[in-house]
Specification:
heterodimer; A: mainly alpha; two-stranded antiparallel sheet; 2 strands; B: mainly alpha; 2 domains; 3 helices
Chain lengths: 476, 132
């Protein structure tokens, strides 16, 4: 029972919001309830991690659900991310008024699906958890409300259509794997797949196709095209959610799936490397010319998916723990950028570079957060982004994947340009007289939390890496 | 081995021929037995009698209320499908009676929240949802 506690807490949180959606609760009351419950869920997840930390992995639901240090660590990251996203979207400026309770409910359900995903070790369970998390997201994109703005419908439809296609491809790949290995359980697959890879090329096609829907969630190269349009069309708080949490879940599952292929360098590694590099190149080069900040962050997330993939395809403990570290850091850095975007736009409209001008004077706090977020994503030292990239390169060099490391370094250099462009825009004086951005105390506190987290995990990475290595150890 | 295999296939062939006959023979019989009818303009319309149809279906808009009813119906229609797995394993050594019935009730209970939501939001009040 205590193994399933974080999930139960999330389910009850969703139920609470369901019953609140029947009435007409005030926005501030809703926000308070959401924050309190999210905090409780984070504490429960921490407790659950401590509980299963040094324990052997335990399975539930006829072995389809595995609770180990790996899944529990991801549950902490996911629930903490939910807490931050709820905190960030104070007042839900961009959401239709009478749908706010439903918005929180679907957000909780989406995280619930991702939490299931991090524990799922059976192919059908994986598909169902993925769909729980996706369906909730499909629904909340058109919730955006801004007078005269209609692009959210386009974004919602695109997300549904491409998502359905990705799931279809994934299921097709699973049918290959089931047809050849005669099992849907990952712990049985891991025993037969490495041997089959040598003799049956079809299993490679199956594995890659199966990963398609996780590439989609992660916005990686062959499945990346939805990201800019969806980010642009969805409201700022929704975009902050889509940009971070589903990616954490996708990384959790990709680690489990890539580990299936065995630790040796094989064809799968090669294909993933090509995807990773193309993802970085496409993401970084397209981001250079963007003006809308959310579109820019979308392309940057495509590039970051490539970096994480480099860590995953190393298939060693350091690589996996680097992926966990990097995606956790990416969550905080990206949320820092969305925190700035959310607070700059008074009515929840999209933010361009022109809106950033004079930010250092209008709101030093936002400017500082933006600087740390952008520096982090560019990989400049004291932040979490630097050590994330450092660990990724170390892991790749340990496997002597020098070509990939060189290409990744070049890409990191390109990406620094547009991240620093954001910083430059924030520190330019604006021509016209601009007003000071009003923020209440809680928004300041959130900014401080983000700054402290980015610097804290960045300066003292060993604690987090210790837990990440322990978690990755349960996979290999 | 191979002979018995072949005879088994012969049975299948026999059944296929029998199946085709059972399907298409009635058409042939009906063709010869039917009275000869005269064809006129309305023979090729969906309804041969009654009011003369006019225009196409997609020229008209229906109240969105029908659509909402259909959605609610669908939720419970599909729900029946998910009761079959419970019924097949009910009271076996995999799933005990108590567990089966309680999981069933949890499932139906969560599904009926959809009805409560629709009820509170006024889906069942029949009124014009779109002002034209």
């Amino acid at each position: 029972m205590s193994l399933f506690l974080p999930e139960l807490a999330l389910i009850s949180m969703a139920l609470v919001f369901f019953f609140m959606s029947l009435g007409k609760p005030k926005s501030s009351f809703l926000q308070g309830v959401a924050l309190a419950q999210a905090a409780i869920v984070v504490f429960i997840a921490l407790f659950a991690f401590k509980f299963s930390c040094n324990q052997p992995a335990q399975t539930m639901f006829y072995d389809a659900y595995r609770v180990d240090a790996f899944s529990q660590l991801f549950k902490i990251i996911l629930t903490f991310g939910l807490f931050l996203v709820i905190y960030l979207g104070a007042g839900l400026k961009g959401i239709t008024d009478n749908l706010k309770a439903e918005y929180y409910m679907f957000m909780t359900l989406s995280v619930l699906g991702l939490v299931f995903l991090s524990s799922a070790v059976e192919l059908l369970t994986i598909v169902i958890s993925l769909e729980i998390s996706s369906f909730a997201l499909y629904v909340i994109i058109p919730f955006r409300f801004q007078k005269g703005y209609r692009k959210q419908m386009e974004a919602g439809i695109k997300y549904v259509m491409f998502g359905a296609m990705a799931t279809g491809i994934s299921l097709y790949g699973m049918s290959y794997i089931y047809g050849m290995a005669h099992t849907t359980y990952l712990n049985e697959l891991v025993q037969v797949l490495p041997g089959m890879l040598k003799h049956q090329p079809a299993i490679i096609i199956g594995l890659i196709l199966m990963m398609a829907s996780f590439f989609y969630k992660l916005a990686m190269f062959p499945m990346h095209f939805w990201a800019p349009d969806v980010y642009e069309g969805s409201s700022n708080e929704t975009a902050g959610f889509i940009a971070t949490l589903p990616k954490v879940g996708a990384v959790a599952l990709l680690i489990r799936l890539v580990a299936l292929a065995g630790i040796e360098i094989n064809q799968i590694t090669g294909i993933l490397a090509i995807f990773a590099i193309l993802s970085m190149v496409v993401g970084n080069l397209s981001a250079l010319v963007q003006d809308d900040l959310k579109r820019l962050l979308a392309y940057s997330s495509i590039a970051h998916a490539g970096y994480v993939m480099v860590a995953i395809l190393c298939v060693n403990t350091l690589g996996f723990s680097a992926a966990i570290y990097y995606i956790a850091g990416y969550l905080v850095m990206n949320l820092a950028c969305f925190y700035v975007i959310y607070n700059i736009s008074p009515k929840g409209e999209n933010v361009t570079f022109a809106d950033l001008k004079g930010l250092y004077k209008n709101s030093p706090m936002l400017a500082l957060t933006l600087v740390l977020g952008a520096f982090g994503m560019a990989g400049i030292p004291p932040t979490v982004g630097f050590f994330g990239k450092f660990f990724i390169f170390t892991a790749a060099i340990e496997k002597s994947l020098y070509a990939i490391v060189i290409l990744t370094v070049i890409n990191a250099g390109i990406s620094a340009f547009y991240y620093l462009k954001m910083v430059r825009a924030a520190f330019m004086t604006s021509d016209e007289e601009s007003s000071v951005i009003q923020m209440d105390l809680s928004a300041y506190i959130l900014g401080l939390i983000l700054i402290v987290t980015i610097l804290g995990i960045g300066i003292f990475p060993q604690t987090f890496m210790h837990y990440a290595e322990m978690a990755a150890g349960t996979i290999l | 081995m191979t002979e018995s295999c072949l005879t088994d296939y012969m049975y299948i062939l026999l059944f296929m021929v029998g199946g085709c006959l059972a399907v298409f023979l009635p058409f042939v019989i009906a063709y010869y037995l039917r009275p000869k009818t005269t064809e006129y303009v309305r023979s090729f319309q969906a309804y041969e009698c009654g009011v003369t149809p006019f225009n196409q279906m997609w020229d008209y808009r229906f109240g969105v209320s029908y659509y909402l009813y259909a959605l609610i119906f669908l939720a419970f229609d599909v729900d029946v499908l998910y009761l079959f797995p419970v019924a097949t394993v009910y009271n076996t050594d995999v799933v005990s009676k108590i567990r089966g019935i309680s999981e069933l009730f949890i499932f139906i209970g969560i599904l009926s929240l959809a009805i409560i939501y629709a009820w509170v939001k006024g889906v069942f009040k029949w009124e014009r949802k779109i002002k034209s």
